[in-house]
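By way of example, what follows is a protein record of this kind.
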Amino acid sequence: MRRRIGGPTPPRSTSSGSHDVSRASGPQEQLYRAHQSLENIKLLRVDFGQLMFGTPLWHWYIKEKWKTSPFKVLHISDALRLVVVWKYGGLYLDLDVVVFQSLSNLRNTTSTDNGINVATALLAFDPGHPLLENTIQDYATNYAPKEFAKNGPLLLMKNFKKMCGVSKVDEVRLSNVSKCDVHVLPMEAAYPIPYERWNEYFNSHTTPNETAFNSSLLIHVWNKLSSGGKVMIGQNSLYETAMKKHCPTVYQYAKNCDHV
C-alpha cells in the first residue's frame, strides 16, 4: 500500500452541483447530444484537493503558489496528468489529438515530438511508476511558476535522462532495450507533422489524402498554435479527413455548425 503524505484532512468539495448541460441550447445542445451518443466518453467533475491529497503534490497544491503563475491553468494541467496516471495508472491524452488505432497495448510508454525530448501529450503507465513519481517529487520541490514549459515536458525529460542514463530519447528508443522500463514512441507515431509545420494539418487539398498517417497511432495538432483558426468543412484538409474517418460523430456535429 502506498504511504500517504502527511497533512490535514482533504477539503470537502464546495461545488453547488454539476451544471445541467442537457438544458443548453444551440451549438452547446448539439455538442451535448453528440457526447450522449458516444458510450465510451464520460465527463467527470474533478475535486483537485481530493485528487492531490496523499500525493507528493499535496503541499504544493494547498500552498497555492501556482495561483501566482501567468501559466496557472497549464501548470495545473501538467500536475494533474502526472498525478492521475501515477496514482491510478492508465492512459492520458491531450484533447488536441485524433486517435487512429487502439492504444490499449501501450504500457509504460510516452512519446517524442522531436527525437530528442519526451513529450507529455501521451502518458501510458502503471500506477506508481518511478519515472512519474520522481517527476512529481521534482515538481513539488522545484516548481517554477514563471516558466512556461519547465514544469511539464522539460521536467519529465530531466527525470527521464537521470533515470535512464541518456541524453536524448532516441538513445533508448533505437536501442530496442529499455533499461528503465520506459518505452518511447517515435515521432511518426503521434507527431508526424512537427510543431513548426502545424498548419499543414489544416491546408486545403483538392482530394482527401487518406494515407498520410498510415504509420501513426494518432496525431497531435498543436492546439497552442492552431486554436485561433477555423477548419472549414469540405476543404479536405488532413485534419478534416482524419476526423471524418476516425471521429465521425464529432465530425458530423462540426459539419452541422458549418465549421470547427
Observations:
- The mean pLDDT is 86.
- The longest strand covers residues 118-125.
